[in-house]
Automatic annotation (TrEMBL):
Taxonomic lineage: Bacteria, Pseudomonadati, Campylobacterota, Epsilonproteobacteria, Campylobacterales
Annotated catalysed reactions: Hydrolyzes free adenine bases from 7,8-dihydro-8-oxoguanine:adenine mismatched double-stranded DNA, leaving an apurinic site
Key words, A-Z: 4Fe-4S, DNA damage, DNA repair, Glycosidase, Hydrolase, Iron, Iron-sulfur, Metal-binding
Names of the cofactor(s): [4Fe-4S] cluster
One Pfam family this sequence matches: HhH-GPD
Entry EC number(s): 3.2.2.31
CDD domains xref list: ENDO3c
Protein name as it appears in the record: Adenine DNA glycosylase
Record-stated family: Belongs to the Nth/MutY family.
Provenance organism: Sulfurovum zhangzhouensis
Length: 317
């Protein structure tokens, strides 16, 4: 095992993505932020567009907790999965410093088992493994696991972790999965784990792929307009919580003008929206904004598309 860990460490020194900013800090808040941003989001997107502006706006966990949720959501705009931002903010209102204990970390909003392990390993250098998608795939191939449970994966992960150098080991495991142990066309001859990999003869078998059908949801979106201002409301449900958006209605008003359709793909479903514009003779809603004010609000990607459709329609009139 020591030889294997040495091979992994050497590989990381020569091929790892060591220049990523969250890999060059011991600040728990920055590492925590990166882990949350990287959930369901590509490294390139986080690095180029979100990580630095967010830290510049909220440089400490304390300042993040003292900020308004609306401001946090605005900085998060475009990253999606807005519950991540909401839980990040909520955690910041509860603690100004992150605990080093995994069980204490898991008690905080939005911090699951893997995020807690990542913070412990990267910020506090504890000898624990992490468990993201790339690492899961590597473990499945090393141990020929087709449909393992989470419990089994964690058991194998703890068995394999380099307890002397958990930082480089875990970073290397993610990079190996991202660049070598790929879902398709795995480059086993370049992998520092090849000597122990039981699935290298046919890596595509591990893990077994699950067929997933993505349902389509249809909605009617009505843009209420009064005195050249548009009505938006702040969402309170679980989906897109805290973001501002246009109203969804079962049946649009008879006098509403049909503008067209927009669609947006989420992880678990596709959303198709038929968009209508309704001119009110008197204010019927609570909040109205002009276009410049709307651009300052935190809105979802689908609402951005609806707004662009409206602006395009206005330009052609």
């Amino acid at each position: 095992m020591k030889k294997l860990h040495r091979n992994i460490h050497n590989w990381y020194q020569h091929h790892g993505r060591q220049t990523l900013p969250w890999r060059n800090t011991d600040e728990p808040y920055y590492i925590y932020l990166s882990e949350v941003m990287l959930q369901q989001t590509q490294v390139k997107t986080v690095y180029e567009r979100y990580y630095f502006p967010f830290i510049e706006r909220f440089p400490t966990l304390k300042e993040l907790g003292e900020s308004k949720l609306d401001d946090v959501l605005k900085m998060w705009e475009g990253l999606g999965y807005y519950n991540r931002a909401k839980n990040l903010h909520k955690t910041a209102t509860l603690v100004h410093e992150l605990p080093s204990d995994i069980e204490e970390l898991i008690k905080l909003p939005g911090i699951g088992k893997n995020t807690a392990h990542a913070i412990a390993a990267f910020a506090f250098h504890q000898p624990v493994p992490i468990m993201e998608a790339n690492v899961k795939r590597i473990l499945c191939r090393i141990y020929k696991l087709k449909t393992p449970t989470e419990k089994e994966l964690w058991e194998y992960a703890y068995r394999l972790v380099d307890r002397d150098n958990p930082f480089d080991y875990n970073q290397a495991m993610m990079d190996i999965g991202a660049t070598i142990c790929l879902p398709k066309n795995a480059q086993c001859n370049l992998c520092p784990l090849e000597s122990i990999c039981q699935g290298k003869v046919d890596p595509g078998l591990y893990p077994m792929k699950k067929k997933r059908l993505v349902p389509t949801r249809e909605e009617h979106i009505v843009i209420h307009s009064y005195n050249d201002r548009l009505s938006l409301s702040q969402r309170s449900g679980k989906f897109l919580h805290g973001l501002w958006g246009f109203e969804s209605m079962e049946v649009p008003p008879c006098a509403a003008e049909y503008l067209g359709e927009v669609s947006h793909a989420y992880t678990h479903f596709k959303l198709n929206c038929k968009v209508y514009l309704y001119y009110e003779s008197s204010p019927e809603q609570i909040h109205y904004f002009n276009l410049d004010e709307i651009r300052e609000l935190a809105i979802s990607k689908v609402d951005e598309k609806i707004l662009k459709l409206l602006e395009k329609t206005i330009e052609t009139l």
